[in-house]
Description:
four-stranded antiparallel β-sheet; alpha+beta; globular
Amino acid sequence: MRTFIAIEVPCDFRDELARLSRQLACTVPGRFMRRETYHLTLAFLGEIGEMESHLVIEAMDEVAGDGRLLGLAPTGLGTFGKPADCTVWLGISPAPELMGTAADLRRALTERGIAFDTKPFRPHITLVRRAKLPRGALPALDFPAPAQAQYMTFYKSTLSAEGATYKPLYSVDLASES
Length: 178
């Protein structure tokens, strides 16, 4: 199964992201992410089996439970790819707690022999895929107010013609102290 581990985006922040996406849709055509799919990926694992799933859960449990909430503070829009066919994302400030959680998780996965995409961690939330950026500047946009994230979730990702769907397999509360 195709999987990844991500920080769940709090409901109020999701609402603000959906509002931002509606503003963006006025000038940027593309395939906009659905509100329920917003997340901040910590590690993309790709295809894994049942045995690896148990090891992923162990790694998540090891990282969780130190009572830390993770700040989600928007830094602006960014893109991956060419302007005629790109991914548009909202950058999230690389706060020490967030960067530390990502590093701790990746270390715990590595210790268990779980492979993941080793690209450097750049905190962001994808808003639009297959976007066609207009010439010139984007309109002024209202970014969401900073928020606190509490849950790290292990997701199964299923791809289809309509886009990806994500099914939560396991979730840990980062704010609870073990």
